[in-house]
Design brief:
Largest sheet: 7 strands, mixed
Order of helices and strands: EHEHEHHEEHEHHEEEHHHH
Structural class: alpha/beta
Shape: elongated
Number of helices: 11
Radius of gyration: 20 Å
Length: 255
């Protein structure tokens, strides 16, 4: 089979993890019992896949690049035959969600937001994912910080998000222009996916005018939020505010 570096393609936004210590940390962070089902997003040449299989997990690997999918099928043919590895050639964003115990992956930077939003449709215990470091800082950002954003709100309503490792750009081939980080996502299951998605229409509107007071963007808003700006409101309070606002507007329109 070709060397992994020769299979690199800019088309899929690939950077290949070459630091085994980082890979083993990611797998250990899943902290799941042997035999657990794990979905791996974008396995590439199989750096994480190998460690996952060594750990006794049953792995489903979704790979968009047919060359890597073929390499995985050849390299781990014994695991495929025994049912410990299933390889799906396809786009994670288009695959029908199924339940897994864990989700892991070093994902393409350019579709990071789409992947986080898509994960809201999945049932799982814990996800361990590597993203660009600045993106991770936005995921975990708190109110009144420059990184607090619509992404922060959406992620934190769906998951308990924790940054668990920082990763140097030198851990990859080819070396990217940015450093990375690893985050842990644990589903909260406190708000329905449908209601968060509905509220997100208003989140987008608010964060596009984040310097304005809420009352200048949403007319008739609850007075306790009227003088605040969106960056000052926690995800939970923002969700409650928007749901109540939309509900009250609907009630007035149907009277």
């Amino acid at each position: 089979m070709p060397e992994p570096s020769r299979l690199f393609s800019k088309k899929y936004g690939q950077v290949l993890l070459r630091n085994q210590k980082v890979a083993r940390f990611e797998v250990s962070a899943l902290s799941l019992p042997e035999g657990s089902s794990v979905l791996e997003i974008g396995p590439g040449p199989g750096t994480l896949t190998e460690i996952l299989l060594e750990s006794g997990y049953k792995v489903t690997a979704i790979e968009a690049d047919h060359r890597f999918a073929e390499e995985l099928a050849y390299r781990f043919r014994d695991s495929v035959e025994t049912g410990f590895l299933k390889i799906i050639k396809g786009d994670f964003l288009k695959i029908e969600p199924e339940p897994y115990d864990g989700i892991i992956g070093n994902v393409p930077y350019q579709i990071s937001s789409e992947i986080v939003f898509r994960l809201g449709l999945y049932s799982f215990t814990r996800a361990v994912l590597m993203f660009q470091r600045e993106f991770c800082q936005r995921l975990v950002a708190k109110t009144d910080s420059k990184d607090y954003s619509r992404l922060s709100v959406n992620a934190q309503l769906r998951f308990r998000v924790r940054l668990i490792a920082r990763v140097s750009r030198n851990s990859f081939y080819p070396v990217p222009e940015v450093d990375s980080a690893v985050v842990e996502l644990i589903p909260r299951n406190e708000f329905s996916e449908e209601s968060i998605s509905a509220a997100d229409v208003t989140f987008r509107k608010l964060f596009s005018s984040r310097r304005k007071k809420i009352s200048t963007i949403l007319k008739g808003i609850d007075q306790k939020f009227a003088e605040k700006r969106v960056g000052e409101i926690s995800p939970e309070d923002l969700y409650e505010m928007v749901i109540n606002y939309v509900s009250s507007r609907s009630s007035r329109q149907t009277v």
